Model the fold of this input.
Amino acid sequence: MEDSLKNKTLKGVRWSFIDNIAGSGITFLVGLVLARLLSPAEFGIIGMITIFIAISNSIVDSGFSNALIRKLDASDKDYNTVFIFNLGISLLLYLLLYAGAPAISRFFNEPQLVPVTRVVGLVLVCNALGIIQRTLLVKAVNFKTQAKISIIASSGSGIIGIGMALYGLGVWSLVAQQVSRQLLNSLFLWIFNRWRPAIQFSINSFKELFGFGSKLMLSGIINTVYQNIYYLVIGKFYSPSQLGQYTRAEQFNNIFSQNLTTVVQRVSYPVLSSIQNEEERLLVAYRKVIKTTMMVTFACMLGMAAIAKPMILILIGEKWLPAVTYLQIMCFAGMLYPLHAINLNILQVKGRSNLFLKLEIYKKILAIIPITLGIFFGIEYLLLGSVFNSFIAFFLNSYYSSTLIDYFPSQQIKDILPAFVISIITAGIMWFFSFLPWNNWVILALQLSLGVSIAWILYEQSRLSEYLELKSIFLSYLQKLKK
Done:
């Protein structure tokens, strides 16, 4: 049984990782091309409406996806009820966004936002059409199908966006890329998945799922506001160009922090939910997930902070140089995001969405500090405040999760500290070379080769269990490929 759970988890992680790399990776590469074709100000215009779209998407889902994943005996009646609700609320929110577009435009003093908001808002309806299809695949830990869909949607939307940028359509190339990606994603979810909705809405089913999901919805909205409030603050108090610089830094940061968080959250939640009543197995699996995830996360995020300058200058050019400092600060906050997600997953697995909501409220009250710093002192101070908040959030998340699973903050720190020390030493040596007056290509190649070599030597000497397990998985995978 243990091997079956391990195999299911590894398969899920592998395909979820491929899904994220296929989706976000292709989108990231498309973003690099668009960053060379478009100006920071055009990216800033899209950044101004990001918070409104993100909050609306949180309301559309309403926490029902997680409620359905957690419910072991979910029926067609449950799925149909949620589908009808999702679609109905998405249409209502789109109409509100359409009507509110002039007010959003006046707030940011940006006339282009009226038509841009009304078109980008269509992603809400597209997303609603695919939520149940995606939930069914996640519940089955079927990320292979989602990976195929991500490749199609990201590639197709990328071609559309780049083509329009080459024709000089400016910000509309970014609009078309976003809308077409969500449209293609939902379309192919329907093509690859056999489930079809029926006109069936159950009040009892809605109440049961909403009882758990509503608290997650409120938590999601609070978290979404926090994650995107910087777009609002920078867009309002600074220029579109500065907001554009921030969005590019965030895209680089997300390629690891957000994707690793998503992979861990998507796979660990259904897997841990399946053993939610087996306390000993749950704790063992939980610790293993944390140690392995954070070893990879520390290496990626601290390594990215070290190579930020030559990487950005090579990939998107001198006009994006201010994004370097933003990215380096973001990496120190982002390195803890997967750890936050794992701790919060336990609250959901144990059915404690009330604690989940309480935590989000506490953490977002603390968020007032960096937002205030950003308004009065500058974007760098806003980001430094977010690093402080990320560390405080870890202690809050891990404290509350420990009340359910007996895995205390001090134990978590003890488990992840060796990997952090190895990564910070490696990144420090890599960062030193960014000050050399050499060609950026040479510096980046030297940093990467040194980083891999030093990390490998330190991990081989330390013989950490998480490293040995990852090494074993990697070697066995290579052997399969050779056969």
Remarks:
- The longest helix spans residues 279-315.
- The chain has 20 helices and no strands.
- The two ends are 27 Å apart (CA to CA).
